Amino acid sequence: MIISLWVLSFHEYARRDFEDYDLMLVEKVLKILDYFNKEKVVRAVLLLLQSLSSSKKALEIISDLSTLELIEKLQQRHWVDKDI
User: Which of 3, 41, 42, 49 could form a disulfide with 36 if both were Cys (CB 3.0 to 4.6 A apart)?
Assistant: First the structure.
């Protein structure tokens, strides 16, 4: 599912849904990131967030949801994949 959202994040018509506070797509994705520790899931969510970072409105949502704290928490973990 996360990979599908990542692919959709590159398309303008779908980006509007990520920018909608009522749909809470970004919030749900961040909950997945917080809950799952599999490197593939973490990598996919980080790619999705990176793709959304080109949108100012999506960046506001990401900022409002304290994503930086979550990423700092993830940085404290030992990852096999150094790119994470």
Answer: 41
| 57 contact partners, CB below 8 Å, separation of at least 6 | 19
- Helix, strand or coil, per DSSP, at residue 73: helix
User: In this structure, are residues 29 and 48 in contact, taking their beta carbons and an 8 Å threshold?
Assistant: yes
Length of the chain: 84
Question: For residues 2 and 37, which has the higher predicted lDDT (pLDDT)?
Answer: 2
27-45 confidence digits (pLDDT tens): 999 999 888 878 889 999 9
- State the pTM of this model: 0.83
Task: Show the tokens assigned to 55.
Answer: 């949108």
- Residue 42 makes CB contacts below 8 A (sequence gap 6+) with 33, 36, 74, 79, 84
In the structure, what pLDDT confidence band is assigned to residue 84 with cuts at 50, 70 and 90? low
